[in-house]
Amino acid sequence: MSPRASTEAVPPGTANPPAPPVAKGRLWLGIVAAPLAWAVTGLAGYVIVARSCEHGRDGLHSMAAVRPGVVLTTLAIVMALVSLGALLLSLASWRTLDRSRAPDDHSTRIASSAETPEDAPAAPLSEWTRARFMAFAGVMVSALCGLGILFWSVPPFLLDACNQVR
Question: What is the pLDDT of residues 119-131, one digit of tens each?
Answer without folding.
Answer: 555 555 667 778 8
